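User: Write out your own:

AI:
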Amino acid sequence: MITNHDYDNRNIFIISIDHNLKCESIIDQNTTGKRYDGFSRTFISEIIDRLGVESSRAQKLQIPITTTTKFTSDTNDDLIYLMFARSLVSKQSKFKEIGFIRFGKRDLYFDDGTSLKHLVNCPSILDFYIRFKRNGYGKILFDLMLKRLSINPKVLAYDRPSYSMLSFLRRHYSLDQPLWQHNHFVIFSNDIFSL
């Protein structure tokens, strides 16, 4: 069994995947600007499905939120940021998937605390899962997504965040006052209403 100790942060790379399963770009800490266009749709599909199942188990959900079928049939322009790490020990496995973030915009109704409802086309974190916790992988991936999208984490909506997701946001981004909404999303600021 390969563990998190078989990888380190210097050997990670991240790809951005659109709903057509096209790998749009890569961030590779060993080779700046290198692109990986050789991933097959089947390979990407298997990884998305596998991590989607692991994410649902970690969140104690009945069914996965993220599957290839849902992701590709969605009419929204969602993106998945997928993190890999190169193995330091295994000759059989060149790299291993570490985790992913699924980002998309959704038309959502939010309560501003004054009984007014606002319909907002809101940038949202729809799923977030890191296989190996407490190694900095989640922070690296989340920061990269924020930078690529030029967005502040306090103006994102978070779909059914787990306790561990809320702890992550509190620890790394000082988001400590979640505003739970009737639609199971969480926001952290009324600034979201002016998007």
The chain has one domain: 4-194.
